[in-house]
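Pasting as-is:
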Amino acid sequence: MRLNKNDIYGVEALLRWNHPTRGIMLPDQFIPLAEETGLIIPIGRWVLNVACRDGAVIHKHFPEAEKPLTISVNLSVRQLQSDTIVADVQQALDSSELPPECLVLEITESVMLADTDLAVRRLQELKELGVRLAMDDFGTGYSSLSYLGRFPVDILKMDRSFLASRNNDALAAAIIALGENLTLEVVAEGIEQPEQALWLQDVGCELGQGFHFARPMTDGDLLEFLVAGEQAGWDQLGKPKYDAA
């Protein structure tokens, strides 16, 4: 969400496994094994294609939005190291006809601890496709500042832990100021209370996401959510303004 306007900036693709006997499984229950076995490559390719397809549907439904709505997809270290990742992203964009600027690829700081030179090269190649890059869970690693200048990222996603305690307010404000000084957009993750959103506005954070705005939903429910928001006359798209009181 754009916090100062309370309208929707974009959505993020979340992966779930509907297991036949265990029910809905969250990523931390199966992604590590997918990474270890190499299955993350075909899984990631499938996620890119589905996310771009759904993003194209959203884009076509809301052509009058102030800016094109984005869809974010997480990339693992293993995917970034794959020789096919640039072609995989290009294929997903081509087949879905999603404008490249509508796709945000998210990476974590762990890419820095793998092969940094390869990571920089891959990210540069992805940038040449016209997509945008985000550093996810920023502030939880050890090498952020020393490598940040080398990575061609557009967005810093401040880890949710910085909103978990008011003791972290100064650190959160520092990250927001860092993003502004580097001309990077900063997204505050994990917003669950209206007071958090209002405080972030006060310290100049333009973007935020979290359960305060919406819970995870299916692609069909998402489209209904966006359509209902537009028809209800909310701030362009999304949900009604939260009341400061």
